[in-house]
Each structure stands twice: as structure tokens, then as C-alpha cells.
Design a protein that fits this description.
alpha/beta; Hexokinase, domain 1; seven-stranded mixed sheet; 20 helices; globular
């Protein structure tokens, strides 16, 4: 009996600051975990701590006027038991360790108080299972109240969550990774076996935690991931981010996600830091070459990508070890400059819409939201007589997916086609601007879902290349920089995967060198950031 296993431990009462290691020892004695009686578990609950708590609270309530009347329990203990049924989620359990402290102390008081032995034994069994589940949950072992699947054994590999969290969609991927695997070569993805992946629309969720909760549930895993690396669309400050292009705004904190889900470490990185490392995994078949320029060995690499917003970054190679390091930027928020009369009118329209008197950022035009703004301007101001009513109504009803409607009807709707032309002219101009800033002789990469889904706009009549390189006296300089368009839309996800692999590898090497691999009582700190410097060579064709 579990209750008998617990009866001999005398170290009570516990204090509210009791750490998890001591807490586990006081309940289980050593590092072993007693097997719960599954018949009782199935009778009591579906498998979560607060459900067990509710059942125990109901038990107390049912017998309050009978056997429990004779129990010598303080009123505060009865209040604790009553409150168990109000713990609505696991955050309330994991964020307040003193709850478990109360329950452990209460266990011993129930054991020693007067009352019906049958009811008392049943109450102690409920409470014991509840406590054990808390321990398993806090340590990422959610299998205590359900039989673990045999396939859940990963033979030394570690589970890692990789995320590409944009303004419209969030892609989450679960990998099983061997920490001491070799780093990838050019054109190769980071090591890891794919376990589960899913894309979610942000507008379907109130907050980011809901997406992660659904993902973990749908993945069917029985153990929590070791690390999560999330590439987020916004500036990262102290491992937190405010999403800049999400209606209503989301705030994500890495440390909050750690404590809420029990993941050992959550690292947030800028989405274009991930995008920069992601282009290093692209092979030649995954890139459309726009011009004939050849890459220069060791040259600067730069990246631009239009999605919900507009991102830019660059990578430089260390001359000694030949390894690239990525540097994100907020270049998408530089001023946008029109090229013709139509674009000047668009600029004035955007100024009024966003209440900006002096400027409009490039991201307001060159992004999914920008493409929607262009269509809105052409429909409402310039060419209302060309509106296709069916397309227009579908566009209005499409929420955060408006840009995809415009691209969808570009071949059949004149306003959609004109919108795409204006958009890609502006995209080409900003491509040239970014190339002027960094002179990416190692390669300039255009990434993001809009580019990958509309490759023909980069080659039609050479318009894109002509606009991009139309930079007056220095046009010949940037013509020497090779331009590639990524044909795939998971570049950011790949970069986050690579970054997560290096985090895990660093953690493993620290543990190994410190002889702490199997010592759960000692914690190895992670750094807030990590420089993922990998040796790569530039594309040659």
C-alpha cells in the first residue's frame, strides 16, 4: 500500500519554501516512484491532479456530517480540502508549492486523527495519489495516472519543441534529438527525428499558452520536452516578447512558460534570427536563383522575408574559423518610399489610415497586412468600378487571411492582380535597399510564405530584378550579389530547430564535463542567448 510506504517518514511539518527535491524525497523516500493502484485511479479520475483534488473534496463533503464530524482536523485543513475543488488548472498547482506542502502535512494529520478507518484510509489514498501526481507533473512525468505507452521510450534522446510563432500562424514541431549528434553540413537540417507537427491560426486562441496546451495534448507524448525554442515575431527583451503584428497583442515570457508547463528551459529568439540560421539549411533545389551573380566565399549573407510583417537580418563569417553568426534587425520598420504617382497616393492613404503624419514603415506596405492595405486602397479609392463583388466579400470575411485571398484570385481578378504588382514592386525596391546596407556577396535570400507561394513574380519579364538593382550610381555594386528565393515556407522553423539543437548540445556538454548528467539535484544554468556558429559554405549554383 502506498499509504504504508509513506507512514514512516517523520520530517514534518514542511515549510512553504521546501524545494522539489526534498518534497519528492519526503513523499517517495528515494528516487523510486511507487506504482499507483490503477483500479483506484480509474475509479477516481481521468488523470489530472485537480480532478483527484475535486474527488477528495467531494469525499470530505459527503462525510462531513457523518464520520468526519469526529475527525480532530483543524478548520484550516477542512478549508484546504474544500479549496482543492476550485483548482481549475495545473498552473495553480505548480505555481504555489505551498499547496502541496499543506497536503503533505494534512496527510499525516488525517492519518493520526480519530474517525472511521475506512473513510480515513480512502481519503489518504486519494490524497496520496494527488500528491504523487503533483510530483510527476512538476518533474515533467505526466504518466503516473495512466500507463505509459511503450513507444514513449526514446533511449537517451531528448524531446525538444521548436516553434515559428508569427503574427498570423504558429507552427510547433516536436523532435526527438540525440544531444551529442554531429552538427549538420551545408544544406542539411539539424539532427532529430520528427515526432509531431501542427500549424495553428493565432486568431483561434486567446493566448499563446492555449496553443502549447493543445499541441502537447495532440502530440500524445507521455513525458515533457527538455527544451523549447520559439522564434517569435518581435524584439526579444529578457526572454520575453510583445508581438508587434497580432491584433490584441500577445505577451510571451520564456520563464512563465517554463513554470506553467514544467519544461526545463524555454528560449525565445527573434524570428529573423531563426530565419538567418534557417537559410543555412537550404539546398540548391530549395532555392530559386533570380540573377546570374555567383556567391563569394566568406561573403556576407543577408535575408529579407515578408509574412504578416517584414523581417531582415544578416550573417557574417568569422575569418579564422569560417563559421557564420546571425544578427537580427528591425529593418522592416525603416521608412517606405514610393516610386510613382500611384504609390504616392498609397502613401497618403496609409498615413491617414494609421494616423501617421510624416512616415510609413516599409512593413506597412511589404507584408501580408500591406498587401491587404494595397487592395483596400485600390478598391475604395482608385478603381472602385473594377471590384469583383464575390472576391471583395470573401476578402472582407477572411480575417487575418486577407492576403491569401488576394493572391488566390490574382489571375482572375484585375484588382487582385494590380495589388500583387504594386506589392512586388515595393518588395523589389526594399530588397535593393537591404542589399545596399549589407552588400551580401555571399548571397541574398528572400524568405517567407508570400514569396514561396508566388515564385512567378520574381521572374516575370525581369521586373523584380530590374527594380531591385535600380540604385543609381551604385547599381553595378549590388548586381554582383546573388539573389535567391526560398521555395519552402519553413525556413524559420528550420532555424529554430538548429538553434534548439545547439542549446541541447551545449547543455549536454556542460553536464557531461561536470559529471552531472544523472544528478537531478544539481541544476545547470542556461545562458539567455547562445551564438550558434556553424561552419557552412556558400551556394555555388
Amino acid at each position: 500500500m502506498i499509504a504504508n510506504k509513506l507512514a514512516h517518514r517523520p520530517r514534518f511539518p514542511l515549510q512553504a519554501d521546501t524545494n522539489l527535491g526534498n518534497f519528492r524525497y519526503l513523499i517517495c523516500g528515494d528516487n523510486s516512484y511507487p506504482d499507483p493502484p490503477y483500479g483506484l485511479v480509474n475509479l477516481l479520475s481521468e488523470g489530472w491532479p485537480h480532478v483527484l483534488g475535486s474527488n477528495l473534496a467531494k469525499l470530505i463533503g459527503q462525510h462531513m456530517s457523518q464520520d468526519f464530524q469526529t475527525f480532530s482536523l483543524p478548520r484550516s485543513d477542512l478549508e484546504v480540502l474544500k479549496n482543492m475543488k476550485h483548482l481549475k488548472d495545473d498552473k495553480e498547482l505548480t505555481s504555489h508549492l505551498h499547496y502541496q506542502v499543506h497536503y503533505v502535512n494534512l496527510f499525516y494529520r488525517i492519518q493520526s486523527c480519530r474517525g472511521s478507518s475506512a473513510v480515513k484510509s480512502f481519503a489518504m489514498s486519494c490524497l496520496t495519489l494527488f500528491l504523487l501526481q503533483c510530483i510527476y507533473f512538476l518533474e515533467g512525468r505526466q504518466t503516473v495516472l495512466r500507463r505509459p505507452r511503450e513507444s514513449a521510450s526514446f533511449m537517451g534522446e531528448q524531446l525538444v519543441i521548436v516553434g515559428d510563432c508569427g503574427g498570423t500562424n504558429t507552427r510547433l514541431v516536436l523532435y526527438s534529438i540525440v544531444p551529442n549528434a554531429s552538427s549538420p553540413s551545408r544544406g542539411e537540417r539539424a539532427p532529430g527525428a520528427l515526432i509531431f507537427k501542427k500549424r495553428y491560426k493565432n486568431e483561434d486562441f486567446r493566448e499563446f499558452k492555449e496553443i502549447v496546451s493543445v499541441f502537447l495534448k495532440e502530440s500524445g507524448i507521455d513525458i515533457l520536452p527538455k527544451i523549447a525554442c520559439l522564434a517569435c515575431a518581435g524584439p526579444i527583451v529578457n526572454n520575453t516578447v510583445d508581438f508587434t503584428n497580432l491584433k490584441g497583442g500577445w505577451f510571451i515570457s520564456g520563464s512563465d512558460l517554463q513554470s506553467f508547463f514544467g519544461i526545463e528551459y524555454v528560449q525565445l529568439i527573434n524570428d529573423f534570427l531563426a530565419m538567418g540560421y534557417g537559410v543555412l539549411t537550404l539546398n540548391t533545389s530549395e532555392c530559386l536563383k533570380v540573377n546570374e551573380a555567383l556567391p563569394q566565399e566568406g561573403g556576407v549573407i543577408a535575408v529579407i522575408g515578408a509574412g504578416t510583417g517584414l523581417g531582415e537580418c544578416f550573417l557574417t563569417q568569422d575569418p579564422d574559423n569560417k563559421k557564420y553568426t546571425c544578427f537580427p534587425s528591425e529593418g522592416g520598420h525603416c521608412d517606405w518610399s514610393p516610386h510613382n504617382e500611384l504609390e504616392c497616393e498609397l502613401l497618403n492613404y496609409a498615413r491617414k489610415k494609421y494616423n501617421h503624419r510624416n512616415r510609413i514603415s516599409a512593413e506597412r506596405i511589404i507584408s501580408g497586412n500591406g498587401l491587404s492595405l494595397i487592395y483596400e486602397f485600390l478598391s475604395n479609392v482608385k478603381f472602385p468600378g473594377e471590384i469583383n463583388q464575390e472576391v471583395y466579400e470573401e476578402w472582407k470575411a477572411s480575417g487575418a487571411q486577407k492576403s491569401s485571398i488576394i493572391a488566390k484570385y490574382a489571375k482572375t481578378c484585375s484588382l487582385c492582380r494590380k495589388s500583387m504588382d504594386v506589392f512586388f514592386n515595393a518588395y523589389a525596391s526594399e530588397t535593393g535597399n537591404a542589399m545596399l546596407k549589407w552588400l551580401p556577396t555571399g548571397g541574398f535570400y528572400i524568405t517567407g510564405g508570400i514569396g514561396a507561394s508566388n515564385l512567378e513574380y520574381f521572374t516575370i519579364d525581369g521586373k523584380f530584378l530590374k527594380t531591385a538593382t535600380d540604385k543609381g550610381r551604385v547599381s553595378d555594386t549590388i548586381k554582383r550579389c546573388p539573389i535567391y528565393v526560398a521555395k519552402v515556407d519553413d525556413v524559420g522553423e528550420r532555424g529554430a530547430h538548429l538553434y534548439a539543437f545547439e542549446l541541447l548540445k551545449k547543455k549536454y556538454s556542460i553536464c557531461k564535463s561536470s559529471s552531472m548528467v544523472n544528478d537531478p539535484k544539481r541544476q545547470v544554468p542556461y545562458s539567455e542567448t547562445i551564438s550558434v556558429k556553424l561552419e557552412y559554405h556558400v551556394l555555388t549554383d
